[in-house]
Amino acid sequence: MSSSSHSERASLADALSSGISAISQAASTSELRSVMATLTGKKGAVAAVKSQLGRLDNIEERKALGVLVNEAVAALESAAESKFRELKRAEFSTQISAEKVDMTELALSAQASQRRGRMHLVTQATERLEDVFVGLGFQIAEGPEVETDFYNFEALNMPPSHPARSMWDTLFIESDVEGSVVLRTHTSPVQIRVMQEWPPPIYAVMPGRVFRKETPDATHMPVFHQIEGLVIDRGITFADLAGTIESFTKAFFGDGFTSRLRPSYFPFTEPSAEFDIRRPDGSWIELGGCGMVHPHVLRAGGLDPEEWSGFAFGFGIDRMAKERHGVNDLRDMYSDDIRFTEQFS
Ligand code: DAH
Q: What residues does the Aminoacyl-transfer RNA synthetases class-II family profile domain cover (predicted)?
């Protein structure tokens, strides 16, 4: 083994142990985020070792060191993950005790007269989203929560027994024709209703409640909220979609945030993508789906695909509010405990 490989191994081991100790010393989740950004960033110690890899001329040594680098990164990430959970828990309970209400009768009656109500986190988020989209030139539309199979699936390019229907665990309403009435599983059916009712061009967002056959846990609820976007005009391209997502990202999250699109599949768009938001510290939030409106969907909305084109997008509001406020468990958001709501104004 050459001396150069030895020295790389040594500096990797150093980077790893000083990284682990920096992680364990982080005093808050935001400090931990910046520690990780420094460690695994372009200028970090791991990246420095990585950049030396190419200089080793023995292929076996290069491979072996490559494996060690990957292991070091994985070790740092898993240390950071458990530290993050620990800090988050601590921060949450500090918050809760800081906001604790004295539940004695006297204190309650004295405070009740002064206490102000708060809007639910999801309501707050929805209103901010609406403000931002109105600022970008969008109108707001709403549709029914009890939908027909036609709007929820068929008009969205999912004929009966289309396999993509299983992407949504559907709750059904009793009706004469079994399976023809559902609780909408997403806000996408409102796209069709808007296309049928509004003459194009259309620039609309459609927030609302959606329902899925889901057991509640920390990240899932059977009832949650989405916001749908629809743009229909002449000559709309994928570049308009990407640009709109990016403008929205900056307007809603702030200038330090950017967005990216990843190829994906939805029956109602072609091509389809998922979009993620990049935080200033380099971490990513997976937000939602989007794509160019499928010609079958335009036709179901009564529009001629030769004349009109457009894009659509949709994402969950609850998860976004959860991310934004560092809520650990979605179920807390629906606990109806005023001490929870009062923490967020
Ligand atoms: N309706 C999709 C869902 O609930 C989200 C979605 C994906 C909406 C792509 C769209 C879109 O408008 O173009 O999973």
A: 129-321
Q: Which atom of ligand 1 is nearest to the CA of 185?
A: 4
pLDDT of residue 4: 55
Task: Confirm or reject: Cβ of 188 under 6 Å from ligand 1.
Answer: yes
Q: Whose CA is nearest to atom 8 of ligand 1?
A: 314
Q: Name residue 240's amino acid.
A: D
Using CA atoms, how far apart are residues 129 and 124, in angstroms rounded to an integer?
9
Q: Is 269 in the pocket of ligand 1 (CB under 6 A)?
A: yes
Domain boundaries, the chain: 3-116, 134-344
Given the DSSP bridges, would you call strands 309-316 and 284-293 parallel, antiparallel or unpaired? antiparallel
- Is ligand 1 within 6 A of the CB of residue 19? no
> What architecture is domain 134-344?
2-Layer Sandwich (3.30)
Quick: pLDDT tens for 181-237.
999 999 999 999 999 999 999 999 999 999 999 999 999 999 999 999 999 999 999
